[in-house]
């Protein structure tokens, strides 16, 4: 890791988010060119300015990308998502109770990123569109990160466990690579309130939804014949929850934007569970009905 890998997290801590995005984009585009002459000081350098933070991410190298930069980009997108959630909650708490100009002043104080200023005072539809756009980009970047380093979420969510053990050497995609990234970027993650919390929330929701599957998973030959078969049920559930975390981010966002005492994710899980149990009962009753018809048919044959 070089100095260029340390800069994006620092920029995010200073809320220089646009500059952070421009920096990352330049390195992920021009900086990736094989014919770029790094020894020529006359060539354009970091000339990307005011790029659209919500633009498409096709320029990212998702197969051999710069992991520290993509990690910082993920933090930036989550930072924006938290701001959108804060704006949505604010409008639920003070709907129409303040003049528009005062409402906008309140909204300015519940967001952190200067980039999020563009959504202050915008319509609910525009805010919803922004949420969906940012959320889809978070999912895209998270998927890319998982391909680049499978240890990403494990290390990030257990940072206190791994921070005291920095790695001196690493190879791309290794556990040690994530330890190095954690050393240089975790302070930025920790200082962005709501970001780690929403990831933990998604993990908890994934755990609740996966709890009933764990015993069946542990009873398979695949589990028993592979490394890690000595894990307890709790350890297995923790691993599964981490692996499924990103698939439940939308549930975590839904919970975060709700003022109800009942979490929407819990209500949805209970609804789906009730539907599943009803379908199972219906199937059993259907099978029992078929069995009764067979017995009646056999009895009628015997009497003949």
Describe this structure in words.
- With 304 residues, the protein is mainly α.
- It folds into two domains: 1-192, no CATH class; 194-304, no CATH class.
- The protein is 65% helix and 0% strand.
- The chain has 14 helices and no strands.
- It has helices spanning 3-13, 17-28, 67-93, 100-110, 124-148, 152-157, 159-162, 175-191, 195-210, 214-218, 221-224, 233-244, 249-256, 264-303.
- The chain is globular.
- The mean pLDDT is 88.
Topology:
Blueprint: H1 3-13, H2 17-28, H3 67-93, H4 100-110, H5 124-148, H6 152-157, H7 159-162, H8 175-191, H9 195-210, H10 214-218, H11 221-224, H12 233-244, H13 249-256, H14 264-303
Helix pairs in contact: 1-2, 1-3, 1-8, 2-3, 3-4, 3-5, 3-8, 9-12, 9-13
Shape: globular
Strand proportion, as a percent range, falls in under 5%
Mean pLDDT score: 88
The proportion of residues forming helix, as a percent range, comes to 55-70%
Characterize the main sheet: none
Q: How many strand elements?
A: 0
Structural class: mainly alpha
Compose a concise summary of this entry:
The chain is mostly helical and 304 residues long.
Highlighted features:
globular, 65% helix, 2 domains, mainly alpha
